[in-house]
Amino acid sequence: MKITFYGHASLGIQVNDVNILVDPFISGNPKASHIDIDQLKADYILVTHAHQDHTLDVEAIAKRTGAIVVSNFEIVSYFEKLGIEGHPMNHGGTWDFDFGIVKYVNAIHTSSFPDGSYGGQPGGFVIEGEHKNIYIAGDTALTYDMKLIPLQTKLDLAILPIGDNFTMGIDDAILASDFVACDKVLGYHFDTFGYIEIDHKVAKHKFFEKEKDLMLLEIGGFIEL
Length: 225
Ligand code: NI
Ligand code: MN
Description:
- There is one protein chain.
- The chain is of the alpha/beta class and 225 residues long.
- It has a single domain (2-224), classed as 4-Layer Sandwich (Metallo-beta-lactamase, Chain A), CATH 3.60.15.
- Helices cover 20% and strands 28% of the residues.
- It is built from six helices and 14 strands.
- The strands form two sheets. It has a seven-stranded mixed beta sheet with strand order 6-5-4-3-2-1-14, covered by helices on one side. Strands 7-8-9-10-11-12-13 form a seven-stranded mixed beta sheet.
- It is globular, with a radius of gyration of 16 Å.
- The N and C termini lie close together (5 Å).
- The structure holds nickel (II) ion (NI) and manganese (II) ion (MN).
- The site of manganese (II) ion (MN) has 7 residues, from helix 1.
- One of its GO terms (molecular function) is hydrolase activity.
- This is UPF0173 metal-dependent hydrolase EM932_04320.
- It comes from Flavivirga rizhaonensis.
- InterPro entries: Metallo-B-lactamas, RibonucZ/Hydroxyglut_hydro, UPF0173, UPF0173_UPF0282_UlaG_hydrolase.
- Residues 7-189 form the Metallo-beta-lactamase domain.
């Protein structure tokens, strides 16, 4: 499983030959100007919630690639009206896709589209593919619901928001990594705009002090599990 960071909360996940994008917000992110959305491959686009900083490039990429949008019922319905194919899910639901098993899990946040229309309730994803298990938290506060995840899934990586203000910050993300029983964390949702700028050194040191590993990738950088 290869995981590429495209800035903010945008990820590429490659499982075998299948390309998955998560929350593409790239063309609107000046820090990601070296990433060309017209070059990105996508068989699926997973969307955690409707906010623009997670959905901006969904339409363009889905229309070019024919990717299937996987999200909650309301978000999938929204994109189906634009002529995009979707796979609707809702919280607690699991589906066995051709690349692996996906569960849509709880997040504490909000989820409206930029035009104000209802984007359902926000979520995150647990993905099991290629014998690797990852948790993509989406935008969320720290929540006890995270403790449910390790009851069923032994995670290899937790992808957690760390930028604070709109989501968890560093200290809560450290607790979240305890809750999901995974000490290997990829941080996201930081530095994109003023409210969520963080000190990388301090963040990494705080995780290190708890014997945890916080990875922060350059935009375009990747890790392989
Ligand atoms: Ni959001
Ligand atoms: Mn966000």
